[in-house]
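Dear colleague,

Thank you for sharing your sequence with our group. We've completed the structure prediction you requested, and as agreed, I am returning the results in plain text so they can be pasted directly into your records. Please verify that the sequence below matches your submission; if there's any discrepancy, let me know and we will rerun it promptly.
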Amino acid sequence: MRRREFVAFIGVTVSFVPPALWAQRSVMPVVGYLGLEAPERYASRLHAFREGLASTGFEEGRNVMIEYRWAGGHNDLLPTLVEDLVGRQVNVIAAPGGIQGALAVKAATSTIPTVFEMGGDPIALGLVTNLNHPGGNITGATSQNVGVNPKRLELLHELMPTAGEFGLLVNPTNPTSAEASIKLLKTAADALGLRLQIFEASSERDFDIVFAELAKQRVAGLVIISEAFFATRSEKLAAEAVRHAVPAVHQSRDFTVAGGLMSYGGSFTETHRQAGVYVGRILKGEKPGDLPIVLSTKVELFINLKTAKMLGLAIPLALLGRADGVIE
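Please find the predicted structure tokens below.
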């Protein structure tokens, strides 16, 4: 019998588990999955997570249940969703897709094994004190996407060396990520002799306002920080960047495929698959504190030449030579 999903009155997607399947809880382990967005936005990542879980011998509906909780892009709902999973006494909590989810679980439980997936530094965020032996109930995988934010600014500067001012897009409802990114980018901008303007967006309605303001103020280009809300809206951001003729760089290849100028970042597939692997290993009896934090070192650069031509930008040969993919 297959699980059905519905949207609760607060706008959060949760899972309905048929009574016959729920009765199997006594013999089947349950994973609580904390999603920052909606299922459709996480389709490829869910596939990677389930693939990793299956590699350890666990298949959803056969020998493991997964209780999904979706925040629909509303970070303020995460603590309530986590408390619900804790109250249901799930065997493991998977918190893939962002810093805020991992921090919400950290605040809610020190006993339920937890596996995060994110782009930040877990030590700097206070999630663990040691990468090789995290201890406690938390482990996971990170792409360090937040750490490469300055490189995105450097790429725009390399492409437009005479420009003196660039924009930075942050999500004010994710202050941990926003503050860390602003600090890193301001340091990088100072080193390059550049000015940096901060723009904020926490809903899709904000995108048009931000890009219109960028064009109005003649800001040379935009760095979109690594953040779950922006990561799952790469196509919408690309459309606005093209419509307003703003050179922009994003973390996801999907942004470049959709028409954005450049993307530079780690592989979501790799880290989500690893999160699934760790959940499976914990279900088999391993302790999260003994599983080292996985640092994904794979970082990819993609460039859209068609968009560059539309913007009147000539891509330096040195930059093209470093690209992992060029879209023509």
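Summary note from our side: Confidence is low (pLDDT under 50) at residues 1-16.

Kind regards,
the structure core
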